[in-house]
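User: My collaborator sent over this chain with a note saying "see what the structure looks like." That's all I know about it. Can you take a look?
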Amino acid sequence: MAKKDYIDLKTAIPGPKGLEWYARDRAAISPSYVRPYVLVADHAEGLEVVDVDGNTYLDFTAGVAVNSTGHRHPEVIKVIKDQADKLVHMSGTDFFYPIQIVLAEKIQEIAPGPTEKLVWYGNSGAEAVEAGLKLARWHSKRPLALAFFGGFHGRTYGAVTLSGSKAKHREGFSPMLQGVVHVPYAYCYRCPLGLTPEMCDFRCIGMIEEVMERIAPPSDIAVMVTESIQGEGGYVVPPAGYFQKLRQLTEERGILLMLDEVQSGMGRTGKMFAIEHWDTEPDIMAIAKGVASGLPLGIMVAKKTVMDWKQGAHGSTFGGNPLSCAAALKTIELIQNGMMKNAAVQGEYIMKHLRQMQKRHPLMGDVRGMGLMIGIEFVKDAKKTKAKDESTQLVLEAFKRGLLLLPCGENSVRLCPSLSVTQDQCDVMLDIWEESLAAVEKQMNS
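Assistant: Without extra context I'll predict from the sequence alone. Here is the result:
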């Protein structure tokens, strides 16, 4: 199949109706939202999004890694409609209903590691992270938390305090939550010591130990919070053995390990959760985004021995909504029955072709990822000078050609399509990617 089978641009991009809606949006909606271009969606199915002007785009964003099964997967839509005919809301923190319990049992089944788990429900990744942080402090009776430079955990106060990816997320909001100390992440492409994984002996973990020796006594640290693969920080993948070393570090000091799998979980990396690539069991884990194929749902899952807080300690009016639970159960079924395997296959295919392309285009400084969580970092030269404008322009050039992409980090672009993506769609994306990249290079040289 060809580009025309997935992309159909009928007007200038953005179109006239889209620009009208853009003007209305600017007059009514918070200016804090980040929109890299003017896409005004009308309807969507699979990996195709149609805007209000009738233009059809190929979507490699999945609504920021949320539509894991594709837009409006028919089986997901059916269970949502069926559930809506029975029960829409009852508040699972005050009452009981079966589908919330069934989903919790499924989460217990798929969560990494053999230890018995319990489940808490919220509405978003940030809420799941906040719940995990509160639980860690409650359980340990310790005040401090370690988090990582480059990490992103959400916009609420606790979550943004844990984050360390961009100063603008904090600007004007201080003071932040007390007791959070940031440490270096395993960002091997930009190792501050100029080392490589083969020769460093995990020096970045040694730097964490130094922080503990100087300013954060281990006996005061409740939890270490990290993403398995950094998302908004640039889709940064740590090396083999990294999390085993972190787990050893935390266990030796009685520190809980909390993993944020909000963007990397639910089959996206070719395993249900990215941390499984490192064969490591966390004490606490945050789940959201792709878990319910577009419906709002945040889940915090923790070892039963850790989730020992008292009745009334934490809750959520809308968390575990029946519609979201129904969507999540069907989403997990679809992921387990082929989509997770497809993520591994198509991700490997994309990575192979991007790395071949990288040899022709020095702007592509680093190609990294697992499954369908792929990041491409743009650099200007051999010194790895960050090509921020060029990465932004690549996203815009792709949009003009009908391909939806999103940036991440300061100078990277992410590929996070639905797990249902086909090889044909990957080929179309790759063609438009190189065409857009050539346009960016032409502008650089003009």
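A starting point for your reply to your collaborator: The mean pLDDT is 97.
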